[in-house]
Design brief:
The chain is mainly beta. Helices cover about 10% and strands about 30% of the residues. The longest helix has 11 residues.
Length: about 100
């Protein structure tokens, strides 16, 4: 019997996307036609980091009922992460109205 809090090799981050873009017809698009989270002007929040996917999934179900998250119950993402691994090695680019520029 294994402990549900014993890591299975990776840790899992539970994210939530809050969509900010409102279409001309006043709709907010949460999911694309293929069922994936719509990526256009969203804020991502980390709910927590968990020792196993099952623990993260259980927390997602709890979070879906909470204020601020229940309006977008399908906008959660669970992703495995590795400890001690740099993920932003190249910096990032901000897209401005006059085109992309590398931040310095």
């Amino acid at each position: 019997m294994t402990d549900e809090h014993e890591p299975d090799g990776d840790l899992y981050v539970l994210w939530h996307a809050r969509h900010l873009a409102v279409e001309q017809d006043e709709r907010v698009i949460h999911l694309d036609e293929d069922g994936t989270i719509h990526l256009d002007e969203e804020e991502w929040r980390i709910i927590g980091i968990y020792p196993g996917q099952a623990v993260a999934e259980r927390q997602r179900e709890i979070s879906r009922k909470l204020p601020g998250f229940r309006d977008e119950p399908d906008c959660f993402k669970i992703a495995p992460v590795t400890v001690d691994e740099s993920l932003w090695n190249e910096g990032f680019v901000t897209v401005h109205s006059d085109g992309p520029r590398r931040d310095s």
